[in-house]
Amino acid sequence: MSELKIAIQKSGRLNENSRRLLEECGIKFSNGSGVLKTKAVNFPVEILFLRDDDIPQYVEQQVADIGILGENMVFEKSKDVSVIEKLGFAQCRLSLAIPKEENYPGPEYFNGKKVATSYPKLLSEYFEKNGIKAEIEEISGSVEIAPGIGLADAVCDIVSSGSTLMTNGLREVTSILKSQAVIIGNKKLSGDKKKILEKLLFRIRAVKSAGENKYILLNAPESAIPEICRILPGMKSPTILPLAEKGWFSLHSVVREDEFWERINQLKSAGAEGILVIPIEKMIL
Ligand code: PRT
Ligand code: ZN
Fold it and tell me: Domain boundaries in the chain?
């Protein structure tokens, strides 16, 4: 049976999360430094370690069957590949930033300006869409220092916390793309490879859902149970078990991580006590 070839970033911001995701899917492989590819010992995949910039092209040419990288890079390279699954990590945005003391009237600010970026395609599309005539200076790294050294008037770069822009005296004025890590795939995978991919996606979704949810246990008097059940929908409905103390019950359920704090306050006001919150390792929906 053939193997599915998965390209991940060799080193950099996506490497650790990509490796961890595969490991949490139960895929065991060695990753010694300097290794360019490795076979998993317990799953039919081969992992290729590449620069993120090269992954779209390699997936298009089927050097790799699938790849993990940021949407920003997928859209910039615009190769003929499909986006299969969003992964939720490496969230960031591609933004335009200008020297912080300058006034910003709107996109027309950029008319006649020179803008440094590593994303010439996405930036030129943005300028075209907004009818802006600006010069694009393509540079491959440390884009944020360009205005400070007189290379450009403004920058278009990846922003996450915003602190890099701030330290370089720049101000984010508009965001042109939101991005997160995704899986891309070749469009013509064989039947065998598609089957392996389906298995892998099943596992990835279980890991992702687990990360997005928490298991919650709490104690409550019988009178509080209807209100607590309303607050805690869970996967089906909460499990309710009697405690040794008469009239008291233990409720178990699953809550979404993003609404967790709000739910906790509601539960406490409804009479819940001894609330325990436990991470979920895998969740099969
Ligand atoms: O060597 P290789 O080519 O593989 O890696 P690389 O150096 O091109 O990329 P890398 O590892 O820096 O980033 C890989 C991917 O991570 C990007 O394509 C994005 O999808 C995603 N990502 C998420 C980020 C950031 N957050 C990020 N903060 N990529 C870059 N940055 C940089 C940004 O360029 C800027 O210099 O971090 C700085 C801004 O961060 P803040 O927090 O100060 O705003
Ligand atoms: Zn890169």
Answer: 4-88+180-210, 92-179, 213-279
